[in-house]
Amino acid sequence: MLVCMGCEWRLRPNGHAEELQVSVDRFDRVEALYLTTGDLAALHQMNTDYPQQTRLLIENLLQLGHVNDSGINARFLMYYQDSTLQRLVADVESVYTDMTDVDEQLGMAFRQLRNLLPDIEIPHVYAQISSLDQSIVVGDGVLGISLDKYLGEEYPVYNKYGYTERQRATMTRSNIVPDCLSFYLLSLYPLPAEQDTVQAYRYRHMGRIQYVVNQAIGTPFFDNEYVSEAEELMNQHEGMTFGQLLQDTDR
User: Which residues contact 166 (CB under 8 A, 6 or more apart)?
Assistant: First the structure.
């Protein structure tokens, strides 16, 4: 998986970080330019400025082959010539012309998350268009947002391709930041392999992650019995840290 998030540190004279500023790196715009026009300058920018993002998209998400394969660029371009995918590209660029609100929400959420989990590393966040693949991808130091999965619950293409009403309810702009934090925390605090095969463990662990996300974004975005169970556990064990809550999967 992958993750990309643009972050910028402003330093005080004594070298301490003043405030973490976050902005989504718009890889999707360069991607869209190549996929709609075949612009070779855009392809060059993808390969030079966004090599990790391009490789993860082509190899891991779309599974078109290796990024260095002969003819891979033409294959990548041809894949997106489908009329539905061309519509996705156009609609993403229209709906997400401005992502200032998402940048501000991400900045506040990651600053609070750093307060809750002081040792956490902040990823580089970027946006992409992934052909209705994974909503959030997490990789080595990066976090990617597939904007084509957040075009709104009434977006006609979702209904056409059989997404349920429950699924479509989560495919909105307001879900971007909670999803980013949830999947990023899941990548940092995975369940042990022997527990990951047990549904009860997975639900409980996800509830704990969602509880921490609620604290980071300052609102009970996730509300279910497993989130309530996590809150109750924290209340019962005075002094338990958020890191312990996520790491102690046996409790």
Answer: none
